[in-house]
Amino acid sequence: METQEKTAEEKKVQTLEAEGFAFYTKKDAELAIQERKKIRYLKAHMDVRNPESILSLYERAINERVFKTPVGLIFLKEVQDYLVKRPEIDNEKIIPIPLFVTYEGEIRSRTSPARQRVQPAAEKKGKIQALPVSVCLNIVLVIAVIAMFAITLTADQPNILNYERTLIDRYAGWEQQLTEREQAIREAERELQLGND
């Protein structure tokens, strides 16, 4: 009998089905089967005559995240409903069952790829209008960069692009001034020497 149950469970895991749920991955299906085993164990060892111990078990299962699949969450909901009905348990002590998944966005985009191909007209229109604006901005930026290089190359002030040429021109100007002054001094000296003779 156990062999038949294991074979049936193995077939369900291969088809990503467990406990009446169709899971997205094989690991999730296997996790659901493991949780079903935990639930059987807990039900066999729960003391229904002591609601305080059941409350403690419920809180530990939530705090330690023992159950993550819908199979385990359904069990937690059953325990929660049992505790709510017990008059000796204060309902404010019963913490809500946290859900650690989102039901919008990522799961939907994986399970319905047709939504990705068929976009609403507003989204398509926004993308189409953004392209010309982007191209225009890129052209303006390229023109600005070219203008900055042109200004830099033609400027008289030394900069990283023309510092060598500027320095050579400056030193050549100084050299020419010195040569002219030397010639003027030599001519003045000659005139003075001719005048003394």
Give an overview of the whole structure.
The mean pLDDT is 79. With 197 residues, this protein is mainly alpha-helical. The longest helix has 34 residues, at 121-154. It is built from eight helices and two strands. The N and C termini lie far apart (142 Å). α1 (2-14) packs antiparallel against α2 (26-45) and α3 packs antiparallel against α4 (70-85). The chain has helices at 2-14, 26-45, 51-63, 70-85, 106-111, 114-117, 121-154, 163-196; strands at residues 17-18, 21-22. A hairpin with a 2-residue loop joins β1 (17-18) and β2 (21-22). A two-stranded antiparallel ribbon has the order 1-2.
- Low-confidence stretches are none
Oligomer: single chain
In what order do the strands lie side by side in the largest sheet?
1-2
Structural class: mainly alpha
Main sheet makeup:
2 strands, antiparallel
Strand content: under 5%
Number of helices: 8
Overall 3D shape: rod-shaped
Distance between the termini: 142 Å
Whole-number mean pLDDT: 79
